[in-house]
Structures are given as structure tokens and as C-alpha cells.
User: Which sequence fits this backbone?
């Protein structure tokens, strides 16, 4: 019964997406403010010969190997597989661009010259680069990834440098025309709170908009930040509700961390409760338009006090997982700006990430439609 229901939901989402498809090119989106060069890396388990090797498949296997080296030493061989644009902002912006939306991007794409990995994005979008990008060594495993980031350069992402590239009057124009504003990777941008404060005081009150547009936030793995910092960021995000319909996106680990910071009432430890319970509890506490939580195999959202859920098109052998969450966010936000239902937005989100992990790139809108057709024919299967 569940598979029949899911198939019907996917087919309904397909019909709604086809009807709205023509409007995607009219969408204006703003995204900021990070930027990384991602180096996708495999960890060698056994070296067979110079040309071939077996891979460490899971994070647990690597953790065990590192643990055995305590008090001794060990050699771990890394195989670079791909160098690509990275950072939550550029990956999400690139996915929105692939859908046909007009994107304005402000972030760390290289300065004074755009880094080669961002060249295609910069050519297709209106971009304002603040500084050089950070660098991430992304160790990929079948059960997740380890992101080893070099982020010192991100201290250059501050209000003074942003407004030296974009005058405040221009920012008011950009924000006024944007149907979606997305500001992500709070964790790695040390001056993000100050940027938000300046936007709230100097830009957003001067916007000329009709209905409230959408604003999406992604804290991006805040574990290393203090409880006080995280609570302060969440409070600032709530303040944007005055000007926007605010959406906060979390993966399952982040949801547990935010539940702990907010001290929400749960029936068990945050990591042990159901997706519905933790999503409802955080949403009730925040009081924003939308909270969406996306574990690897499913996704849930609370909008208007109602919980919606969807099992995703899971595959046990993803070709690329770094950026899957950002592609989910782009797909979910696409559904939102096109006016799809919450359930359909979960499907466009999980469908976008499902395409991405299989094809190592974001889908065009026609490719997302084709993928949803394929998914509807293979619900519950690893295809």
C-alpha cells in the first residue's frame, strides 16, 4: 500500500511540475555567500597494483583504521577523483541555474579572477565575487562523507567587503526582485550574523515587493559552533520572518543538534526519535513558515503546522554524495517558488538529490521530470 501511495504522489508531483515548468525561467533567485573548491577523494584500502586498488567503503572502516594507529603511526593513501565547484551556496545556485532560474550569486568565487571551477556558473549567472574560495577535501564513502575544510579565507566574507563590490542600493534592487533568497553555510562564515544584521536594518526594510517572497537558510553542520552562537543564529533567522516566508533546512544530524540547543521536549534522545517527532518539535518552537529535515533516505517538512513525509529514491551505491543536500534544498525550493504542495516539494527535493548522486551533476528541469518518471516506475527499488 505504501508503495502504491508513493507512486501516486510522485505522479501527482510530475503533473504539477509539468504545468509549472514554463514559469521556471521567470524565477529570480539570490544565493550567497560561501564558495569552495571541492576535491572529491577516495581512501585506499588495498593497493593491488599501480593502476588499481580497493576502496575504504565506510566511515566506520576508516575510523577503525585510524583508531588502530593510536600510539603508533599509519599511512593512508588518498586518490583525488574530481575537482569541482563546492560550497553550499555555489552548489545550490548551480542547481537552481540548471532548472532555468535566473540566479544572482555573491560569494567566494575567486578575486580578482574567477576560479576555473566556477567559470560556468559565473558565465551563466549575475555574480559578485568577494574573495578567493576555500578548499575542501571531501572523502567519500558509501555511508556518508568527511569534509575536511580549509576556511581561513572566509573571514573576508563580511559586510564591508560585500558592499565594496555591491552598493547597498544595488542590493536593495537585487533583493526586491528575488522570488527566493538563500543564505547558507552559516557555520563556516564567521561574520554571517553581522551580514544578516545589516541586511535586516539597511536592505530588507527598503525592499519593494508584493506578497512575501521566500527565504531559505541552511546552517551547515553547526556542531563546532557554541550553543550560544547557534541559538543566536536561530533567533536571527526568526527575525527574517517579518520580511519573508522563512524556510530552514536541516539534515538529520543537524536536526538533533538544533533540538538540543533549543531544548525542545522529545520522548527520547534527539537522535533516537522519529523524523516526524523531531521535525514537529523544532517547527513548533521556531514558529517560522517552513522547517524541512532531510535524512539520507527520506525527508519531512512541517508547513502550516502539518507534517508531510516522503521516502526518497535511495541508492546504495551513489557516485557522488558531496552536494546532495544542497541539491535537495534547490529542488525543494524550486517546488516552493513554483507553488507546489509541501508533499510535492519533498518529491522535487528528493528527486533532485537522487538524480545528482547517480549522475554527479544537477539535473535540468526536463531531466528532473524524466527522473521522476523513472522513480515512479521503480518505487521501493534501488534503481
Assistant:
Amino acid at each position: 500500500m505504501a508503495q502504491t501511495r508513493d507512486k501516486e504522489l510522485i505522479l501527482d508531483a510530475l503533473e504539477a511540475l509539468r504545468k509549472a515548468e514554463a514559469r521556471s525561467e521567470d524565477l529570480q533567485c539570490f544565493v550567497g555567500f560561501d564558495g569552495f573548491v571541492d576535491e572529491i577523494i577516495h581512501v585506499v584500502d588495498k593497493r593491488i597494483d599501480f593502476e588499481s586498488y580497493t576502496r575504504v567503503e565506510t566511515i566506520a572502516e576508516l575510523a577503525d583504521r585510524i583508531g588502530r594507529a593510536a600510539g603508533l603511526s599509519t599511512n593512508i593513501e588518498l586518490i583525488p577523483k574530481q575537482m569541482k565547484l563546492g560550497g553550499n551556496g555555489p552548489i545550490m545556485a548551480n542547481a537552481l541555474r540548471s532548472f532555468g532560474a535566473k540566479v544572482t550569486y555573491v560569494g567566494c568565487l575567486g578575486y580578482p579572477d574567477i576560479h576555473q571551477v566556477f567559470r560556468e556558473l559565473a558565465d551563466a549567472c549575475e555574480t559578485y565575487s568577494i574573495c578567493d574560495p576555500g578548499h575542501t577535501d571531501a572523502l567519500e564513502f558509501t555511508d556518508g562523507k568527511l569534509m575536511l575544510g580549509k576556511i581561513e579565507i572566509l573571514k573576508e566574507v563580511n559586510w564591508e567587503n560585500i558592499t565594496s563590490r555591491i552598493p547597498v542600493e544595488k542590493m536593495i534592487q537585487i533583493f526586491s526582485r528575488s522570488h527566493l533568497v538563500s543564505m547558507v553555510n552559516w557555520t563556516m562564515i564567521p561574520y554571517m550574523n553581522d551580514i544578516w544584521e545589516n541586511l535586516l536594518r539597511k536592505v530588507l526594510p527598503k525592499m519593494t515587493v508584493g506578497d512575501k517572497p521566500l527565504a531559505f537558510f541552511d546552517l551547515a553542520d553547526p556542531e563546532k559552533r557554541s550553543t550560544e552562537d547557534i541559538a543566536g543564529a536561530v533567533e536571527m533567522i526568526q527575525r527574517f520572518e517579518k520580511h519573508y516566508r522563512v524556510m530552514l533546512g536541516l539534515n538529520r544530524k543537524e536536526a538533533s543538534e538544533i533540538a538540543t540547543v533549543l531544548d525542545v521536549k522529545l520522548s527520547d534522545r534527539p537522535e533516537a526519535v522519529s523524523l516526524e517527532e523531531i521535525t514537529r518539535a523544532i517547527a513548533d518552537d521556531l514558529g517560522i513558515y517552513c522547517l524541512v529535515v532531510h535524512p539520507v533516505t527520506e525527508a519531512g517538512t512541517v508547513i502550516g503546522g502539518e507534517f508531510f513525509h516522503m521516502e526518497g529514491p535511495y541508492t546504495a551505491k551513489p557516485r557522488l554524495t558531496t552536494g546532495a543536500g544542497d541539491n535537495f534544498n534547490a529542488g525543494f525550493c524550486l517546488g516552493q517558488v513554483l507553488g507546489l504542495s509541501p508533499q510535492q516539494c519533498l518529491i522535487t527535493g528528493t528527486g533532485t538529490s537522487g538524480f545528482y548522486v547517480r549522475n554527479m551533476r544537477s539535473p535540468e528541469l526536463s531531466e528532473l521530470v524524466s527522473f521522476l518518471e523513472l522513480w515512479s516506475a521503480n518505487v521501493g527499488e534501488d534503481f
Summary: The radius of gyration is 20 Å.
